[in-house]
Amino acid sequence: MGAIISITDLRKSYDNGFQALKGVSLDIEEGEIIALLGPNGAGKTTLIGAVCGLVRITGGTVTVGGHDVVHDPRRARSQIGLVPQEIALDIFETVWKSVRYTRGLFGLPPDDAHLERVLKSLSLWDKRDNQCKELSGGMKRRVMIAKALSHAPKVLFLDEPTAGVDVNLRRDMWALVRELRASGVTVILTTHYIEEAEEMADRVAVINKGEILLVEDKAHLMKRFGRKLLTLELAEPVTALPAGLEGRGLTLSEDGAHLVYGYDTAAEHTGITRLISDLADAGLRVRDLDSEKSSLEDVFLRLVEEEQA
Ligand SMILES: Nc1ncnc2c1ncn2[C@@H]1O[C@H](COP(=O)(O)OP(=O)(O)OP(=O)(O)O)[C@@H](O)[C@H]1O
């Protein structure tokens, strides 16, 4: 599959001279879910705004579906559905009329069959004649998505789709995004919940201070940066690491009852077999083992901290 969005050396300086994007290049493949992660002020909203034609770019090029956002903004924008973070609905309007109206804004003729499919896929069909003010917060969010899909865009931007949403609704939203992808829509989401990126994204782009630090397949990323911690519970606590076991990446807990061993998941040899046998030789009996994987959150924090250092 080819790139549906192509961003090349994108620069944005605001009128006060602040450089919010410093030469961002990124290709987004058709049909993928890509998560944009970055701390507050990293440039995520500016980047989305530039692709959607809401922010005037000061350098570089962006094409959506082959259409340049500066030279052919209407065609480029027609490929995109944007779901902003804040819910903005005419609360006295019915769901059906809101969605129909938004489609009209794109200069498209009515297509009630398409809108019916969209509302059904979002479990809003039964609510079509309700005024927006009669809907729950989760339903209002889904109406925002229905509006963004009303002109059948190829690309959907979700800006913080589950900010302030409870766990159940968050899971519903994840299922919905997967369904959208299955229907061929490319999804770009920004999120502060790294768990969300870990759960959903095919690829992750980390952005900081207006620059892309990394774009990588999520599975590769976890493998490349991921670490595992193995905790060994000792049958009898010790006061110090036995001689010969220093310098092996082992840490003794304060109570002397646990040894923690950190290793790279990508390493060819983890050294665990050797470690266990060396512990036995040193007279330490292990009662139990526990292992935990570093999360995408650890990877993200490490990356941003390294950049800050
Ligand atoms: N209109 C503007 N004029 C000047 N500076 C701006 C303007 N809009 C944004 N900025 C600055 O550009 C930088 C990037 O902002 P942006 O909103 O893109 O970040 P973000 O990654 O979306 O942050 P958040 O996660 O907090 O939403 C910030 O330092 C911000 O203060």
Q: How would you portray this structure in words?
A:
With 309 residues, the protein is of the alpha/beta class. The protein has 2 domains: 3-222, 3-Layer(aba) Sandwich (Rossmann fold); 227-293, Alpha-Beta Plaits, CATH 3.30.70. The chain is built from 10 helices and 14 strands. The protein has helices at 44-51, 73-78, 95-105, 112-121, 137-149, 167-182, 194-200, 218-225, 272-281, 296-308, and strands at residues 3-13, 19-29, 33-37, 59-64, 67-68, 80-83, 155-159, 186-190, 203-208, 211-217, 227-234, 250-252, 258-264, 286-293. The strands form 3 sheets. The chain has a 6-stranded mixed β-sheet with strand order 6-7-8-3-9-10, with helices on both faces. Helix 3 runs parallel beside helix 5 (137-149). The chain is elongated. The protein binds adenosine-5'-triphosphate. Adenosine-5'-triphosphate is lined by residues 14, 16, 18, 20, 38, 40-46.
Give a concise summary.
This protein has 309 residues and is an alpha/beta fold. The chain is built from 10 helices and 14 strands. It has helices spanning 44-51, 73-78, 95-105, 112-121, 137-149, 167-182, 194-200, 218-225, 272-281, 296-308; strands at residues 3-13, 19-29, 33-37, 59-64, 67-68, 80-83, 155-159, 186-190, 203-208, 211-217, 227-234, 250-252, 258-264, 286-293.
